[in-house]
Amino acid sequence: MKWIVSTFKIGTDSKIADFGCGPGLYAAALAKHGARVTGIDFSSRSIGYAKKVACRTRLDINYVNQNYLDFEPEDRFDLVLMIMCDFCALNPSQRKGLLNKFHTILKHGGSVLLDAYSRAAFEQREEAASYELNQLNGFWSPDNYYGFLNTFKYEKEKVILDKYTIVEPGRTRQVYNWFQCFAPEDLEREFEEAHFSIKGLYSDVAGTPYDHRSGEFAVIAGKDLPAEMSHR
Q1: Where are the domains of the chain?
Q2: Alpha helix ranges (H) inside 71-226
Q3: pTM for this model (two decimals)
């Protein structure tokens, strides 16, 4: 948070949109620095928790319980955040639409900060199958269950699928967790198509210098002026 506040000069004049805000960890911290924050998340439980924290700590934060792909605000922002590699869970058309949305809702000179899984993360993962009683420490159910995990890699697309099969006494269900792994030039290309320029490349959202061996990396992208304005 110290790096984000310093890098983007966060203060009382800052308007920030936190896409996929979850329980409001970043939103609350930024609001404590005086920023006017809007947090968007489709999890009603996360938003409910975030609102309780904001009320308890007397922070004025606008929380929106909505799929951020459908979020169409009237406000314009200085900074858009998308942290915890949410961008990697979206398919190419969703990413394109979201970056265009970012461009629309940002003020001139505004920025995007997001992180993504790297090509190194793709190489480090292996296709595998495993099972465990109460897999992920009981994450999938409060009752006993067997969890089966099948991991698949798609080399050409640099996509990984974690397929979870959850077997309980009364039901069996499957959860598909897809995520894309990027090289910095992949993200740069997608941002440029949406009229952004990459301003910074790091190993994480704490400003650690970029290392190609890192499993994640972060980018700062700045909103470009429309072509007709940039020549004036």
Answers
A1: 2-118+182-230, 121-179
A2: 92-105, 119-124, 135-138, 184-193
A3: 0.91
